[in-house]
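Section 5.1 Outputs to date
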Amino acid sequence: MTFETLLNSNGPILIDGGLATQCEAMGCSIGGDLWSAELLQSNPRALVDAHRAYLDAGARIIISASYQASRSGFMSLGMTEKEADSLIVVSVDLALQARDEYMHDNPSSDSPLIAASIGPYGAVMHDGSEYTGAYGVSRSELEEFHGLRLELLDQSDADLLACETIPSFEEAQILAEMLRDARSPAWVSFSCRDGLCIGDGTAVADAVSLFRDHSRVLAVGINCTAPQFTLSLINTIKASVPDRSIVVYPNSGERYDAVSKTWSGNVTTDDWARSARQWVDAGADLIGGCCRTGPAQIKAIANIL
């Protein structure tokens, strides 16, 4: 099944939750600058198991562990360029392995899709700037960063590209141009500061409009955003780009402190599932969770839908 075919199927499409969240729940240490991408080298089996947990919960799309994977990040650990690029592609291979194992145990199920994660520049800075877009780098540096990784993942065996947690209008412009030449279909999702604007203060209506009638970007939306803003954002996106599907996978509702790198607050699984029902009713086509959401939340969405 292709991404386009799946989008044309009946009913909402369930995607996975926070990959790092599940890895932590399994006992993995991911506190370094590479976050869950460090497991690509140190514990690849954990990533397979984390993907599998989401497939067992009902996810029809799982997202690779390439969000914070970069050539510069891996080379800082002493790898060569070739080794670093290989590990970025391995992120897709591990998701494929999880899918193969799931299909072996569930041969009558439809085959889930693999989305290759393409995170923002801020993800590799490890300073919370994926929520602000305040990078302090030139446009050419952003182009070089995204061009390299996008090419590697576009040539992988992923079914689609997930350009996610984009907080910067300039970054979105760059991705819009690069994705026109992509082999793979894609979605683009923004991190938003409130119910009106993406991280750098640009109106979300202007940001998503970059992808109106885009030949390769089939869905736009939000992720890594507080859930209380989701309904407002869905309504704005639907009005701005009625020709695109809408993807939403917010955070749990807990609050993140980028300085202490800790979360606070509490949201129940039932609360999460009830909110998800509202998002679907408002027009979301693809739905899942981001930071601090796990297989329990995805299973709850599957049940309530």
